[in-house]
Amino acid sequence: MSISNSNFEWADRGRSVWMGGAVRPDLCIASGSGVRLVDVEGRSYLDFVGGWAVSSLGHSPVAVSRALERQSRELVHCSPGFWNRPGVELAESLARLSGFDRVFLGCTGAEANECAIKLARKHGAGRGADRIVCTDNGFHGRTLATMAATGKPAWKNLFSPEMPGFVHVPFGNPDALREAMDGTVCAVMFEPVQGEGGVVPASREFAATARELCDRQGALLVLDEVQTGLGRCGTLFAFERLGIRPDVATLAKGLGAGFPVSACLATRDADRFEPGDQGGTHTYHPLGAAVGSAVLEEIVGRNLVEHAAAMGSLLRTHLEALARRRGIANLRGTGLLQAFDLDVPRAADLVDAARSRGLLLNSPRPSTIRLMPPLVVEPPDLVEFAEILDASLDQVLAPKEG
Ligand SMILES: *Cc1c(COP(=O)(O)O)cnc(C)c1O
Q1: d(CA 380, CA 337)
Q2: Residue 168 Cβ contacting ligand 1 at under 6 Å
């Protein structure tokens, strides 16, 4: 028996072999193009999850398949023990675009953040500074160190013992930051806009305080731009809106547009690695690097940063119109990383209702919906989104409450 065109069938088979307990709907994606995904039964969805803010160029972008095809015929892998041209070229492009001097290339966001954490500890070594100040409700990844940096209470004893050396302050509280800073701190690390935390932008005051305290204590300011970077928030980097420059910034999600490639960018002074300190089998990977360069070319060449800013404003206009008639509030975020809250904790129901109407949404918290469509989304897609959301809100927030 081989049934290959049933969502239920694939979900059932997956549940019996995929490790771990992520809760997934009975939906198996077969293909994607632009802002649409298609399931194994042939149903099409308007995708406002965007591969979790990854699919910056839309689904199955030609630029990525072309780069993969070209590079894979030339060289798939050579070991990080040698130089390779795409790896050098992507590092040069990222340095040029970002103004940083040094670039590490890895595969995942967590790997880029691990690199930043190692840089921070190296920076503080010798003077007893090994603590990193992070923020409540942040998110930095799922390796043991980045889980500790994330500091989610539910993760505290999940894989005990927790990696030591991370403290947390309320996001946006400069006084708490001042209190936490002393000579034992080697870095302050946060997201310019908390993504998993529900799209919460840092205030300029919080960022300025962090910059000032880091300078005073000789600590590194590390910004996790894994989700916010490369145009997602309507600027190339989200820190541009904060009026500060970090010493270290990490990138991942949008950089590969769906292919796993990440980067840790640092100033010359922040790069204290000596030969052998940092590495990895698939670092500076030719395929990932070739894709990264192709993605940067598209983002710059097609003005996708400006496009994301414009589409973000239009998206906000649609949401404001809906908010006047509906139980939704707290519209927030910029560019194509936005969120809103329902006045009841029924975001999961809204996600289900929208999916059955052909729209994919993400709910990072019980009352919150997060929107992160591909940067190539166009005005008619936003109209369609607003219509489906309106109908779905009708269904979920209907008079019959409870
Ligand atoms: C997704 C994310 C990460 C982790 O990236 P992975 O590629 O899943 O390891 C880290 N930081 C932020 C802000 C993220 O959104």
Answers
A1: 18
A2: no
